[in-house]
Each structure stands twice: as C-alpha cells, then as structure tokens.
C-alpha cells in the first residue's frame, strides 16, 4: 500500500515538472495581448509590463516550458532598452544592477527565473551606432539605432537569444547591417527558430531556417493586420506551418478594431492545436498546448483541441483587402446548376489553373443575402502599398459580397449559406531556388479549413511540381480556397520538364550570342546617326510615358529593379528610336527606401562615367548610361537625398538622419550628363522637404529648344510654372505628374490641355498610371493646336510611350495630328475620381433641356466676374427622367486644396450633373444623351499681374474636344479680359465646357485647421496602409 502511495506521489510530482529531452511533447503558451491605451507613454509601459507579469505569475503559466508574447505590445521608442548580446556571454539582467538595462528587461528576466520557463518577448531595443563600425549608413543624431527585437530568456532569466526584425513594415526602426537569424536550443531537446510578423512572407530568415538549418519548431511574435481573402492571421499561420510541416507558436497583438489579432499553436500537417481570432476590444489571455516533438511523431499522436470560434461579428474587426482587381477572374454562377469545371491562365503567362467545383443548390428568396464567388488566377508581384513584396502564383476561389470584382475580399451578414460539396484545384508550378507553395483557406468564422477536411498532393518533377488541393468535406461559406505559391527570389516562369538545363558552350548558342552583339553594335550606330541628323528643323520628336508603378508585391530593392528594367525597356524599344526627348512621370522609379544623391548641374557630371564614392544609386547610373548610349534627352523623376543643411543660410531644423529628401526631376542630355535638376516646390501631402528658395529649372537642347520643367501640383501655382512663362519667356515645358483627377474642372488631360492652350506653349506631360487610385493622364500639347496625343486610362494602368512631332515656336510646321486619333471608349466610373468640394458653392442655374431643341440664354455674375451663356440643346434617344442635367455656373472665390495651400479662381462654365440635385454635379457618368448644337460663353474677367485664363473642356471619356470643334479667344481691353469660348460642331458627349481663371496674386498658405489635418490623415490612411506596422 505504502509503495503505491509513494508511486502516486512521484507521478504527481513528475506531472508538474517541465518537459525533458526524452518526453514526446513540450508544453507551450502563446499570449494574445491587448496593448495599453493609457494617455502617456510611461503609463502605457507600466500597464503593459503589469499585464505581462500578471500572466507570468498566473496559475495557467505554471509548468509551461516556453511562453511567447506578441510583437510591439510592451515598450516604444521612448522606452527603448539595451539588450545583452548572447554571442558575448549569457547575462541575467535580473542580477545586473548597473542601470544599463531598462527596468522592464530586469523584471521580465526575474519573472522568467522565478517561473523557471523559457520566455520570449518582443520589444524596442536601442544600440549605439558605434557598436558596429563597419556599418557606414547614416546614424541618427542620438547616436542610436532602434530595432524591433525578440528577446529569449532561459529558465534562469539569462538572455539566451536575440533577433532583430529584417523585414520592417512601415516602422520607424533600423535594420541590422547584416540580416540576422535567430535560434536557440532548449533543455527539453527542441531547437527553436524565431522571427517577427512580416518576416513570415519572405525567404530570409523564416523559410531559410526550414530549408537550410533543418529547424522544425518556430516562435512567431506578431502584430498582424489581416487582409482578405488570403492573408488573415490564423489562415497564414496554418498555411505556413502545414506547407513546411513544422510546429509554429504564434503570439498576436490583440486590437481587432484596427485589424490586429491572431494567436495559435500549430503542428504542421496535423494542423491547429489551438487558435484564436478575436473581435471587439481584444484580450490579454494565455493559450496553452502540448506540442508533439517531431522526432516522436511516429511513436505517438496527439488529439487536436477543437476550434471553438464564434462567427465573425462584422463591426468588431477591421480587415484589409487584397488587390484582387489585378487577378484574372470569372464569376461563379451559383444559380446555373450546381457544378462547374473551368480552366484559366493568367494573361501573358504560362501559368494556368484548373477548377472543379460542386455546391448544393441554392434556395434563394427575394432580397436574400448570400456570398457570391469568383475563380481567379494571378502570376505577378503581390500588391502591397510601399512595402516589400514577392512574386506570387495563385489559383483561388474567393468570396464577394456583390457582382463586381471590387466587392470581393469583403464580408457581410448572410441569411443563406452557400454550401460547397467539393472544391478541387490543380496547377503546375515552376521550381525555384526559393519558393513555398501553401494550401490557403478561410471560412466565414475567420479560421482556415481544418486539415482533416482537405487533401493536399504534390507531384514532384524535374523543373515543376504539380499541385492538387481538394476540399472533401461539405463546408458552408468558404471565403477563400487557393493554392498560394510564394516565390521569394525572383520572377519565375514555367520551364518544360524535358528542357535541357545544361546546354554546352559553342555551337548554335555561341553563334546566337555573336549575332546579338553584332545587331546591338549596329543598332547603336544607327541610333547615333538618327539622333544627330535632322531632316526637318521645324519640329522635334518627343515621347511621354504613361507608367504604371508597381504598388506592393516586392521589397524595395526588387521594386527598383522592376521599375528600372521597365524604364530601360521603353528607352530601348523600337518606338523610342526616333525621339529627341523622352519624359517619365512622377513617383514611379524609387522611393524613400532607395534614395540617391543627384549631382548639381554646375558639376557637369555624367553618372555613367563618374560616380565618386558610389554616391549615385545604380538606377541613376544606368539611366545616364542609357541616355548616353541611345543619344537622347531623358527626363526622370525620383526621390533624392541631400545632406542637411545644404546651404549655411538654411537654418530650418534637419531630420535626425541629417538628410533632406526631395521630389526631384533630373534631366540627362545625349551624353548622359545631368543638365538640369528641379526640386518640387508645392509638395502635395508628401513627406518631403522643399528648398529654402523656390527653384526655376530650364535647360537648352542641341535641337534649339529651351525647356522649363516642374512637377504635378506645381501646375496650379504661379511659382515656378506660370512664372517660367511670364518672366522667363519659356515656350516648351516638361511636366512630370502623379495626378489625382478631379471633376468637373481638374482632370489630368483636361488641365494639361487648358494650361498649354491658355499659355500657347508646348507641354510634354507624363503621368503615373494607377487608375484604381485615380492616377492617370499623359499627353503632348502644342498650345493653340491642342493635344497632339493624349491618354486617360480607366481600369488597368499601362506602361506605354506616346510620341508626337512638336512644332517649334516660330516655325511654320503644322502638326499632322491636330485632331487626335479616336480614343478607345472606356468606363470612366472605373477610374477613382475626386470631386470639386466647392462645386455646390457656385452661383448656378439648371438648364431646362427637353426633347425639343431649345435655345437658352443666361446671364450670371459672382464677385468681379460676369458671363453670358447661350446654349442650343435637346435630349436625344432617352427619356427626360434618364438624362443628365446640366448647369451653367459662375464662381469667384478661394479654392482650397487637400493641403495648407489655396488659390483664387474665377470660373464660368457649363457642367454635367447626374440629376437635379447640386450634390450630383461632378459625379462620373457612363452615358450622355444631351445633344448640344451650340454653346457660347462670353465673359469679363478682371485683370491682374499674375493670372492665367484658360479653356476647360471635357467630354464623357475625360478628353478635351478636338481643336477644330472649338473657338477660343481672349482680349485685354481696359481693365478686363474679354473671353469668348464657342462650340463649333454639335456634340452629345460634353461633360464640361467653360473658362477657368487662376488668379495667383492671392495664392497663399492658409492657417492650419483640424479639417485640413483630417483630410491629410484620411488621405494617408486610404493610400498608405502598407506603412502600418506588421
């Protein structure tokens, strides 16, 4: 009896002890932690530390081998701490009383020792820049680097491992000079690797520790911002753990209202042991699991904990949305039968997917709400605003709340379940040095499909791997089901499995190489001849590039490579051969993560041949070389850095890195020399510097034309744009832009056309092409001759060179394409358009247009401006109820912008409204059924020393009308400008027809207001979500 009692006591004691190296399991805890929202930094730190210690001192924490806390829920930059370097010896902060380490590190070291567990925390670390003398990057004025760091304490409270995050996600932190890999061994026989949040999407350090270090257990602190439909937190955890067949301990920050939540423990191909996606205010909770050790998996299996996840409450969690409009998709018609087989390929790619889908018949009633679905395929760079990205190959089914692609990747409350009986996806993926293919799934409870509900098959071949992913369990309301291929190293295409990888030297390959070299040399010779011999000196040939930037999907280095490659392809293209000058748009080359110095014009530097101390970035050097090789002028826009202060008289404060950052135009001549540099004066909600004094940039070419140039928002102000016309008598201009179009008067091509015509100057305008964000608009304009070529893109951006022969001022050359070619119709509602926020303040009257042709005359005044409108129009084809309404309006007042700047404008115009309500004016429309037989606007505008009065004309495709259809005149008798604008030919596609006066003398900075700040913050939140911490 006594022996039995002793044995039971012994077993009880063993059950309370930590795991040993011989046990088949270890006990782990992961913490979902809501960070403090106290008002002061010190109060937040103390509250967070108290929460950490409370968890470590709780009953739940006892007898755990390892406890993991999430990312960025402890301290911040102000409370950064030094952290011991484990490579120099194991230090126990709990025993160190020198004050070197912050109290938070000391207390947590003591808590780990008291608990006798391994404890992993994430914090903001500081380190003296001088600690790494080989790191010659600029140091902050404080002399410190700040890192996002994991710290691992062993059971004695010693710092056993330290890892600094490699892939920052819009964080104001440093990265190490050489990327780190974090791992440590335990006394229970498990080696852990650890990394942080955004790292999981990249090869190093996360995937490399699986592939090359053979690690099978990982720790993952995160502050993850979930994105539908493929990158919600637990969904990513399971996919990564399953594809690599490794254990993953993931601890998540808990703030669902901003989209941050997701914690769990995962056992590779055996799936979730425990996991949680929170809603509402989040929580501070420890989740525990017994985790099988991989060497014991064949000996013993572990029953998985059931998932008890509540259905998603829509208002209580914020979810980002992927850029699904980049996918090739087809809708799944749920009401036409109950099965479909579909094969799809991504355009201009060899990557294809096959889908076989079965679902239960839907019993749909009127007004029923249920998810709709699309099948999609994608082969390209993952779109992520201003963040590092990878190449993706993805075959997917995903849900939508409506019929449009923009309705996909969103959630809603449903009253009918869409129940899938089977989903099978097959595809062939190319092999690569660095890639991972994952089963990616999500259901309406924001959890992945359980691993025992699907089959995952991989058939390995020489150059490819064939994947088959099958949902084999009846499942309602699937949000995503996809084969998600992450290609970490480069863009990879499918190579046939019978293709020879080891071609010998010589033979046909050698001959081809020799021929290519010969053709290249010959083309250089011909280009030189073409570029230096002119057959007609009355014009020059110009090219402007409408260029789609890669937004997300790659890291900053890959982004530069992608943009540079595309720039060089355009410069080397056949279309570019006969151009004298090519202009690229604003903001489509580099970013704040890849800055470059730019030589001063007075230094007479050719970056291609002179690059002292490698201060000019490679992309600047290569474009200089291309301009030199191709013998043409090239204008680019980039993000420039310059040491601060640049001049002794500039007493404005410098940033901590002692750099000024500028939005800069750079002009190369035919030798690749920097012959002009201009830094933007009117920055538009940009985190950039401006020069102490505004710059005026001009340069003279060897074809006898002097150009001035400016950037985007500058066009609305006197300095430098209008001043170059008035004071410097420049007649040819270059305009790089990333322009957000606004109805009804400031869409891109409309403004370019009006500015060139109003000044009677030539304008070469190159626009960034991202219509999803409202950015598009390029053209070449010849003053009173109108647009020679122009483009507005409405759905998918493009990378295309547009060119024209531009008449030199004073020559007798008549442009051959005075009437631009007919533009391809497009749906302007697909283009994100801003709306004039002051359009309702205009003094306006609605025109009474009916199916009977009618002459209407109106006389309106506002302030110092009066105009007479004469309109002859009628409604055609459609009924009065379905037709647009038109107003004639006049405005004399201040126009404010989404920045602390404004200008005085005076406008007389006819413009379209969707209906009779003032609020509908300036809305985009698809159809127009009003026929205008004639329009006449005559007005008297006050004179001024600094002004521009220009025609503002727009059709329903967002282009100006043909020059031959318009008469425009402006006279300056006495104290007024008399303007006369007439429509000479009947039209049914007019949206705006008016006179737009810019009065620059009163343009100024307005006082800062809360409303202005809200506009700026809203703009940044909408367009720079990629800079949120991950």
UniProtKB/TrEMBL annotation:
Q: One GO MF term, please? A: hydrolase activity, acting on carbon-nitrogen (but not peptide) bonds, in linear amides
What are the protein's UniProt keywords? Glycoprotein, Hydrolase, Membrane, Signal, Transmembrane, Transmembrane helix
One of its Pfam families is CN_hydrolase
Residue spans making up a coiled coil are: none
Signal peptide residues on this chain, from the entry's feature table = 1-21
Which positions, given as ranges, span the membrane?
A: 1010-1028
Instruction: Please list the residue ranges annotated as the CN hydrolase domain.
Output: 26-293, 540-808
Question: At the top level of its lineage, which domain of life is listed?
Answer: Eukaryota
What the record says about family reads: Belongs to the carbon-nitrogen hydrolase superfamily. BTD/VNN family.
Protein name in UniProt: Vanin-like protein 1
